[in-house]
Amino acid sequence: MTEGVRIRDIENDKARRRAARQMIGEYHEQQLRLLLDHVRDGFAKMDAGEIDPFDLDELIHHYKRSAQKLWSFCGSSGGAWERAALTLEWEREEGEPETDWWEVGRPRRRGD
User: Fold this and answer.
1) N or C terminus: which one in the chain shows less Cβ crowding within 10 Å?
2) Which pLDDT does position 107 carry in this prediction?
């Protein structure tokens, strides 16, 4: 994808989907790394005695929910990659805050 070219401005379907796949692949990897940082911090806290194994287990389940939401957003086919890329593109152009996938996966408590 040429830098500065918007996904929606690419007329050729194949080229647009290829650009979307590249964009979403990079985004997905970046966001997974951020989610995995929470798990890494959890292991460090457990090793330091700040949390117990049950707390770490809960944190890992939180990671799994967040990663599943991220996977769902990013998709696994050309059409899904394109939708996700167009959504990201729009959010960035509008100055919308980037999705916090850790928060998206936060378990809902009664009354929330």
Assistant:
1) C
2) 85
Of all residues in the chain, the percent with pLDDT exceeding 90 is 82
**Where does residue 16 rank: exposed (0-12), middle (13-18), buried (19+ CB within 10 A)?**
buried
Answer yes or no: is 36 within a domain. yes
DSSP tag of 4: T
Domain tally for the chain?
Answer: 1
Burial of 48 (0-12, 13-18, 19+ CB in 10 A): exposed
pTM metric for this prediction: 0.87
Residue 106's CB: how many other CB atoms inside 10 A?
13
Region for residue 18 given its phi and psi (left: phi exceeds 0; alpha: psi -120 to 50; beta: otherwise) = alpha
State the pLDDT at residue 2: 45
Cα–Cα distance for residue pair 64/60, rounded to 1 Å: 6
| Rounded Cα gap, residues 103 and 109, in angstroms | 13
> Is the pLDDT reported for residue 74 higher than 60?
yes
